[in-house]
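Lecture 7 notes: from sequence to structure.
We start with the chain below.
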Amino acid sequence: MAGLLLRIMISGFKLDWTLISPVYCKLRWYGLQFGVLTSFACTCLAAIDQYMCTNARLEWGQWSTADVAHRLIIIMTITCLLHGVPYLIYFNLVRAPIAGEISCTSDNLAFRQYHTYGYLIILADAPLIMTCIFGLLAHNNVHQLAHRTVPLVNVL
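Predicted structure tokens for the same chain:
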């Protein structure tokens, strides 16, 4: 809803809050990275859970419980919340030296490189890759379910 509200304000009223308020600039980037990482992590955990449920090894299926899922979600949420703290510190309203325009970005070169290479390429893409891998493995497990069923024996 915050992203939609921002788009409505920019497109409809020509008012960009990220260029006016340093607090909104920081919170927008914090919320964006938190939302992306949390949703990708939950999707990845769901694919891993599906793989564990459909696996032939029964001990792997025992890890697929609601209690384990709740703990993993809490751990991932706290991790994503803590990961966003540098976004609250390093993102500011910065005036471009040549054009003189204000933008909501980081003026710290090391953090910008981390954001580009560490966050966008590794942290945002790794859960998607893992989701695809575990999704394919779960799909393979489901196709093998027919071969693992025990036939009923009719005893007279």
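Points to note: Residues 44 and 131 are 5 Å apart (CA to CA). The mean pLDDT is 85.
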